[in-house]
């Protein structure tokens, strides 16, 4: 058992000896010096702690170049493959180990290589790192328009440093390169939508904002730029102000959140920021950028308040997406502003505790994603509405098609009816001209009054048939006038007095062609019976409208329907009953108590 424990302990010790720790170098000496080689030990080295921000530590420092000396010890013979890892620096660096250069980040002269957001990993040549004391020199290149800084340096086996280096490279470089492409594509999409709908200016502002951000975000990963550092810094910071202004305007427009004064202020910032950043002296450049970024941060807070009002007071659901995204964006923006402006406050409040890692650019895809969700939601909603409208349109078209088919069928029917009516009219005209003339001759050549009356009745029937074929319906008042004129003339010729009584509101009624013909013939037959058989001296005709029905009554003072001299109902009476039944009504013949007969017909209107 003791032997087994000893073996385990030995293996653990051997494994621990092989697992060389990574050394984190946080103590250094610094000297401002523009030499291309490390200064001698007798130079004016000053002890500093890493991370070291030149402006925060010593605001009066105007040098753009300096050297760091970091001393460390390696307790045993190191692994053959060692590396030096610089996780963060501003702006460029060259590394020397034990008096030998092992690598750099690019150009030290204008335009200076930009490694401010890029981790650097340098392999140590075999045998250069020795057991015992070692000295690492870092040559740092800054600029008046930047905040020169060096963070703790890590030295150790390459296998252990490779993973954090690649992780940092992925987060700082690869992620931002991918975001640039995606947001640039979103910007082009938004502008294409605006070109198709010019009144939706929110898409235009959003598209411009996305494209400006895509261009400005290259500052996060482009190492070699075509412009001097000062011009590039001005362009980059001015681009941030322009991007932010257009983005905030687009957010307000997307959800109609108001803020007209804020929009005016943002426009002023979009115009004034590039001009002032270009004109300000180098000594005040970083102070002015901090002021402009604070201005943008405050405008963002105001925008968030307007979005909150639109989301919860006015119930705008789209604004709620933007509220969530803007809340996180503003937190990260405040974090980045504190890092960017720490040369103004860190001398009094100490170093920012949450590391010097800028985070705002990671939130840009979030806000663009929120707007993308809004655009997608609007597209889906409009598509659904379009489909509903399309279905309704199809239903309407089908209904109109059915209606048109019915109209065409009706037109064909009317054409057929018109042709029949024209032919009937021609026949009736011929009858009137031929038969009518003969009946008129019979009227004047009749030997007896009864024959003359019969001829007149036949002639009147013919005239009614001819005159009542042209139209489908007639005004009752006009028809009644013809009835009255005929009755008064026939009864007057027979020496019988007439009392005609009718309601005053008959002018609003209309009779169909069949109703006019049948009622007229019933009245004519009733008058004919009075003239021929009743032996009456007076006739009363009543025309009354009640309860949606028309009542026509003919009363005489003759011998009555069943009295002495009265005849049994003949074909004429049966014809009257048949005509009344055809109109949906009824006919009644009654003898009056005072003598005489009453014929009453009642039909629905």
From TrEMBL:
Spans through the membrane: 169-195, 202-222, 234-255, 262-284, 290-312, 319-339, 359-380
Keyword tRNA-binding: no
Catalytic reaction equation(s): ATP + protein L-histidine = ADP + protein N-phospho-L-histidine
Keyword list, A-Z: Coiled coil, Kinase, Membrane, Signal, Transferase, Transmembrane, Transmembrane helix, Two-component regulatory system
Record carries keyword DNA-binding: no
Domain 7TM-DISM receptor extracellular, residue spans: 183-345
Coiled coil: 383-417
SUPFAM superfamilies on file: ATPase domain of HSP90 chaperone/DNA topoisomerase II/histidine kinase (SSF55874), Galactose-binding domain-like (SSF49785)
Signal peptide: 1-19
InterPro entries: 7TMR_DISM_rcpt_extracell_dom1, Galactose-bd-like_sf, HATPase_C_sf, HATPase_dom, Sensor_HK_TwoCompSys
Domain of life: Bacteria
GO BP field: phosphorelay signal transduction system
Name under which the protein is recorded: histidine kinase
Organism: Parasulfuritortus cantonensis
């Amino acid at each position: 058992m003791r032997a087994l424990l000893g073996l385990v302990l030995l293996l653990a010790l051997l494994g621990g000896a092989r697992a060389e720790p990574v050394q984190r170098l946080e103590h250094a000496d610094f000297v401002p010096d523009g030499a291309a080689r490390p200064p001698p030990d007798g130079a004016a080295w000053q002890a500093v702690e890493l991370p070291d921000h030149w402006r925060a530590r010593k605001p009066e420092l105007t040098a753009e170049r300096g050297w760091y000396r970091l001393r460390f010890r390696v307790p045993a013979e190191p692994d053959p493959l060692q590396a030096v890892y610089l996780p963060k620096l501003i702006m460029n660096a060259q590394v020397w180990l034990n008096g030998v250069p092992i690598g750099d980040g690019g150009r030290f002269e204008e335009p200076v290589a930009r490694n401010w957001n890029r981790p650097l990993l340098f392999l140590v040549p075999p045998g250069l790192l020795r057991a015992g004391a070692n000295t690492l020199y870092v040559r740092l290149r800054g600029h008046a328009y930047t905040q020169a800084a060096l963070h703790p340096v890590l030295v150790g086996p390459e296998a252990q440093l490779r993973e954090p280096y690649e992780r940092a490279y992925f987060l700082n470089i690869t992620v931002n390169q991918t975001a640039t492409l995606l947001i640039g594509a979103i910007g082009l999409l938004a502008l294409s939508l605006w070109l198709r709908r010019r009144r939706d200016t929110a898409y235009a502002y959003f598209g411009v904002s996305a494209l400006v951000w895509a261009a400005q975000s290259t500052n996060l990963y482009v190492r070699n730029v075509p412009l001097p550092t000062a011009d590039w810094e001005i362009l980059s910071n001015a681009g941030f102000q322009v991007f932010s202004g257009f983005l905030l305007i687009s957010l307000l427009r997307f959800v109609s959140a108001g803020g007209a004064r804020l929009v005016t202020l943002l426009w002023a910032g979009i115009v004034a920021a590039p001009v002032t950043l270009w004109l300000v002296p180098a000594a005040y450049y970083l102070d002015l950028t901090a002021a402009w970024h604070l201005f943008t941060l405050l405008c963002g807070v105001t925008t968030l308040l307007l979005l909150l009002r639109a989301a919860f007071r006015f119930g705008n659901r789209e604004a709620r997406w933007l509220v969530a995204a803007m809340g996180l964006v503003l937190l990260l923006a405040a974090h980045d502003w504190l890092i960017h402006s720490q040369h103004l406050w860190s001398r009094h409040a100490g170093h920012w505790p949450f590391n010097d890692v800028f985070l705002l650019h990671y939130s840009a895809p979030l806000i663009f994603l929120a707007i993308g969700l809004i655009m997608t939601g609007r597209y889906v909603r409009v598509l659904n509405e379009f489909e509903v409208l399309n279905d309704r349109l199809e239903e309407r078209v089908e209904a109109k098609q059915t209606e048109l088919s019915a109209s065409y069928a009706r037109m064909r029917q009317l054409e057929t009816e018109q042709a029949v009516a024209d032919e009937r009219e021609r026949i009736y005209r011929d009858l009137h001209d031929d038969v009518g003339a003969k009946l008129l001759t019979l009227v004047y050549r009749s030997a007896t009054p009864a024959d003359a009356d019969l001829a007149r009745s036949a002639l009147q029937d013919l005239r009614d048939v001819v005159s009542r074929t042209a139209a489908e319906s007639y005004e009752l008042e006009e028809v009644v006038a013809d009835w009255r004129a005929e009755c008064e003339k026939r009864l007057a010729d027979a020496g019988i007095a007439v009392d005609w009584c009718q309601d005053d509101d008959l002018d609003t009624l209309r009779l169909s062609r069949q109703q006019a013909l049948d009622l007229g013939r019933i009245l004519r037959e009733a008058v004919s019976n009075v003239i021929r058989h009743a032996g009456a001296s007076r006739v009363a005709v009543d025309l009354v409208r009640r309860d949606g029905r028309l009542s026509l009554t003919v009363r005489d003072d003759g011998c009555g329907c069943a009295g002495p001299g009265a005849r049994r109902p003949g074909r004429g009476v049966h014809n009257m009953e048949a005509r009344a039944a055809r109109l949906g009504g009824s006919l009644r013949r009654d003898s009056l108590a005072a003598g005489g007969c009453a014929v009453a017909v009642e039909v629905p209107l």
